[in-house]
Structures
1.
Amino acid sequence: MEIRPIFASLRKHRIPALLIVLEIALACAVLCNAVFMISQRVNDIRLPSAIDEQGLVTVTLRGTDDKLVGSEIPRNLAALRGIAGVQQVAITSSLPLSTNNWGWSFGVNADSVIANQKNINVSLYFIGESGDKALGLHMLQGRFFNADELADSKFDTAPLPETHAVVMTHAAAENFWPGQSALGKTIYSKPYYYTVVGVVEDVLRPNISTTNTRKSYDAVYFPMSAAGSKGALSYYILRGAPQDRDRIMREAEQKLAELNPGAVAKGQIYVDIREKYFANMSSMAWMLVLVCVVMLAVTAFGIVGLTSFWVGQRRRQIGIRRAVGATRRHIMQYFQTENLLLTTAGVVVGMGLAFGINVYLMQHYEMSRMPWYYLPGGALALWLLGQASVFGPAQKAASVPPVVATRSV
Amino acid sequence: MFAYYLDLALRSLKQNRVLTALMVLAMGLGIGASMTTLTVFHLLSGDPLPGRSGQLFYPQVDPTPTAAPALPGNMNYIDAVNLWQARRADRQAIMVGGNVKTKAAQAGSRPMSLHTLATTADFFPMFGVRFTQGNAWTAADDLAKARVAVISRSASDRLFHGEGGLGQSIRLGQWNFRVIGVIDDWRPTPHFYELDRESYGDGDEVFIPFLTSRDLAELGITGYSLNCYGNTMDDLHLENQPCLWLNFWVELDSPAKAQAYRQFLDNYAREQQALGRYVQAGSPRTALPSVMQWLDQNGVVPSDVSLKSWIALGFLLVCLMNTTGLLLVKFLRRTTEISVRRALGASRQQIFLQCLVEAVIVGMAGGVLGLLLALAGLWGIRHTPADYADLAHLDLPMFAATFAISLVVSLVAGLLPAWRACHIAPALQLKVI
């Protein structure tokens, strides 16, 4: 395929050619960055959390009398256990992604106090009997709390529990003691200290940072007795089959409201908690998808419009070429090659622009560096788009009969 | 003449419907997408209290032992009460929120969890809160730890089923409060005075005197973010604990007063250092940001929202180029017609204007389409669970801006093609005919 005539013709249509190149460049730049942002959002939304999210139902009960919870919690749990389809019932202080965060900083030395800069901030979950089974925690090492630890743990005046046992996530253990087994080691916040009795697979914190996902899993579990919980235990959790969860949620909320007329009961299925937490992110991702699709459509319209115009303008030339022996294929190839050249120019500029935009976003927003393969990916998408949109007009051009050349002007 | 251009433009647009439709569609999509995101950006980055926010400031001091790069976002009890009692600003108020179990005091009413704000008397006049019934409490009530409450209209509807509730009693936790005022529903956007709660959430529903809330510490009104910088032995009675949990706002009516307050704050911090309460070395740091500065410092507008606006603008630019290309093609296709008009005496300027009129018609049609798309987009946003979802409405300035933008965009898109069209050499083209 000879490309010199194409250059010659493009030189005559500099401005429209330049416009299409710029449009493709801009589309390529926006596309690369938008797709990268979408992938980041999707990664965040899909952050794994090792609990049984599908089957989990929670009812929060607020406004109970702290002096009575010792008898009320066991009574409420027993009532919830009676709901059909409920496999496990427990109580805890908060749930992953519930935004109800209770944080504290611990160190690994016996003299660590809370204000130590080197301490590691973790989210605290307080949990009652069979909480591991109700949440569906996966023990990696050691054990969950035994009956004594659960019964003896209570709050005194401090916001830390009077116990010495703790279960932590694998990620937290790695942060405290990199490369070592955490089992049997101790974390400190003077005068409190807690010895690790078990390590569980990573569970998300109630609030996570979108910039530093390494810290998203720094959570620890403490045992807590109903009587000593001082109102900290307000999330009743029920585990059942996923298809039963809506019914279980309604019945559990109703039951707790009946049993505790003075308190406020609110039921939720866990998947809704997760969805609500990531709602802004998923709406952002959808909006980006929409923008990408529409932008590609608009770019395609532009190419179709411009090429159609060129085809109309060159009917006579096409006729002459056909008359002197060019086949339909030749004519098609002419327009396809022309489009390939324009798109190539566009994506070369576009990849540079995409890189520049990414650098700008990294400086001004919490954005990480775009992996290199997004650039050729965007280029490929626009090449394909260009070829697809030029196909119709090129075919129209190819169908110009040679006889056009013989018509008088 | 203008009517004639209009007629010509319409004829030309009708001649090639597909191309016209493509241009209008491209413009409409570009304008629709950018107006949707810009409207959200405009709503979220707006002034929460227009006309008032310039006089409101958020004093910051740093009682913590370790110097973090940013000053603390909240105050501890001692500093907040000291500054409040100093009364060196025109108005000043302490505030802290919490979810409190509330019900109407009469028997049989169901409890509900309401956003409750413990604050001091100046809160209402300082923020210009409008009362529909009754009044705020007084500074004397603050000191007397009176059991009085102001409720919002929506809270009064829920608690008293539309009977107002003025003079009635409500029960917070296990204590009765007398309702002395009902305010119109008040929801500054963003929720600037207490950012620890979701920034664009509902307004507060129950207001009680701050010192009363400390008297009844079991109510648990300790803010939505408790940040302690030392060992704490009690998380309800926070008066003497090393914890940052209170918001403190002041009103300063003139720049001179703001300057004087800055000085006062600085002196206060030095005095606290001399007393040994502030243990950081070096001269103590203080700050007095205004409302808008405070929102800016806290990065309240979700960065996603401003990112979206950038992307939508990039998209609009793609649409603009697209329209320019198509308009160019369209005008150049009519070279013969233009040449005839030129030969018959039309000046370049007239051809130029004629082409621009055509571009503007396309732009306006695109603007109307864009407006419809923006309305659809905002409808979509209202149905997402984002905490600002229900705010997404097109207001009058944004409505006007849509048309201003479409006019500007279409003029910009039309300039180059029109300029090319009016520079067609008539003789050359006429020869061909």
2.
Amino acid sequence: MTDPLITWLTAGSIAAPLVAALGLQAARSEKTAHRLNRVFAAVTALVGLGAAGAMLTGSSHSSTWMITDSASAIYVSVVTVVALMSALLSPAYLRGAEGRFFASDRGVRSYYLAFYGFWAALIAIPVVANLGVGLLVVEATTAASSVLVAFSGKPRALEAGWKYLILTTLGMSIAFLGVVIMFVASGAHNGGIAQLDWSALQATLAQMPHGAAVAAYALVMLGLATKIGWAPVHNWLPDAHSEAPAPVSALLSSALLPAVMLLAWRLRDAASHAIGNTAATTPLAAFGIFSVAVAVPFLWQPMAWKRLLAYHSLEHMGIITVGIAIAGPLALAGVVLHFAGHALSKALGFYAAIPLYQIQPDASRHSARDVASSSPATFAAMAVTAITLAGLPPSPLFFSELFIILGGIATGHVLLACTLAVLVALAFIGLLHALLEALQSAPVQDRQATPRVSRHQTAPILAPTLLTAAALLALTASAWLLPASEIVRRLAQGIT
Amino acid sequence: MTSLIATACVALGLGVVVVRRRSVALALVTTQSLLLAGVALWRTGGHLELMPAAGGLLLRAIAIATILGIGIARTRETRPVRAGIEPIARAVIALAALLAIPALVPALGFGDPNAQRGAIALGVLGIVVALTRRATILQILGIVIAENGATLAALSASSAVPDVIELGVIFDLLLIAVVASAFHTRIFGEFGSGDSAHLRELHD
């Protein structure tokens, strides 16, 4: 695959959702918008997967604007798959939803405008070759995704969207201050935007006084932390993920957080020579392990399904971050596997909320009950999600967590790996508890409230459940090959 | 020159921490933004290639004042939204944070140490305003103050921050201001007040 072709395909994968966003505005009715959405989603996904395939088979390439390497390929492919599923399930959500944030006659079109704008930004983040431009794209995602979070216009959704908007924008302001310090303190005249290219950032940081380089690195990392939702700057995360429309929750959890984390990963790799590996990696290890530790107590509480999944996002982002901090080949194999497995299973979990809330409207505030008998298809989706996220074999997350922990021990991070192992075990018990609750029968006096639902209501979740289960099993099978693979070898060499 | 501007910007930011009325706070932040745009325009020395970023800052100041001004005019509060923390306490918190900055932050390579202190002080003031004020408009202004901190830092640099970054930040901030203003209007429509204290239902 030639470099220009890879570049064009990658540019196309960003342009295609933007075209879709504008094209959908021409729809005269909701029905037409939903039909157009299916077509645009399929075409956009084809271009995205084509770009990811080209990146995987081609050699790593970095220009002023675009980086196409193994990490980009993995992220673009997973983001595309999740965005496609979210787009295809959006009509099922929108048919039963009121979008009061927008004027009623424009609700569906505005949803698709923000959705595809968000999709484009999510694809752009992993392939942008420059820290400064990457941060601009991350900030742009906030505008599109915050209105999606508040789409229903209900007080709780407004609260979640507002918190998300204010906290993450403040975080990005801090990150930009760090970027400006890089320009000011590097003293490189006329270096221009290229100073912040991933390939040049190491030299830029090396030109800075050590204290200034550490401060700039810390400010950018803190800004990214607010967007990734690392504890203790995670306050917006459970609210936004639980109140957003289910297809958007899936994008937030499975695509946005890991994509922004890729920026943090690239920044760590670029900074580790200039400021020292310990100074560059310690914040990642601290954020990671603290995020898992903060999530665990919430995973033990009876909680609404989507909110529970949101706390699992906190936990799993923490696990991936610890893997990136450890950085050995085995841990990085775990990171890749965990990222993909988490994205697919978490997205399915959020999609399960679409029929779940139709069966049990109060499940948006309380833990779900008696789902198995009232809607076996919905329960199956929840079970696949819960078993996978809990890391129960044959879940790929069992192997990814094992890889990260063993990778930590192999590289001398014994305390970090052991702490992670204990926390993951505690989280495992919490999620199984939630699954058992969903199996439990409702009290006799409540039985009338949970009638058995029609096939029509649960049809949209059947296909994603089967496809996701198959994809997860395939991921598990790939776990045996991944640690010795070319992809992991390239990742271990550094991704800047 | 930069020292003077930095001091003026910090003083205006402190004003936003304590004032009651949203319109007064907007006027203070707009003055701050216009000051920075003025410095940027002055620094161009008439060179056309430096004009886009300076012009963008001017446009940003005017656009945000217009967007939020319209937002305030359309959502008249029956009474001022009281902050959870009294003005004196807010001022003490802000001043304590500002005084701690020189002790906590190392030299970052700024030619003018006052510019460094000013830039970081604005970042801190932006966070203080966003976290201690309850009016949604004031929380948006907190973001603008924090972004003005990054702008002040950029203006104090001997080597220009690239236009791509400057214009990109301006574009993003305008986008955020439009979206935040839409949120403010929806929140006012839902609760009859732009008081973020109404947004406290979600917790575990």
